[in-house]
Write a structure and sequence with these properties.
five-stranded mixed β-sheet, single chain, 5 strands, mainly beta, elongated
Length: 88
Amino acid sequence: MGRKLIQNAIIVNEGSRKTGSVLIDGDRIEKVIFGDEKLEFPSDTQVIDASGMLLIPGVIDDQVHFRDPGLTHKGDIYTESKAAVAGG
């Protein structure tokens, strides 16, 4: 997958909004920095300028019917979340 740097984004998380950058290695977040903190990264890193754009954590639509509590014999949060990830 390679390394990516999303920089200058408005990072929205846990009720706050801060300008910063996120370094991603493969499918993992390696580092999050805020403000003018300098970040060193390899020259082969794909850099994405997200100035003025929002960057939010991945979320699952909680308005779907996970059948939990309730009809868990048909599916529960674990099985339905896995199905959501598999289906995109």
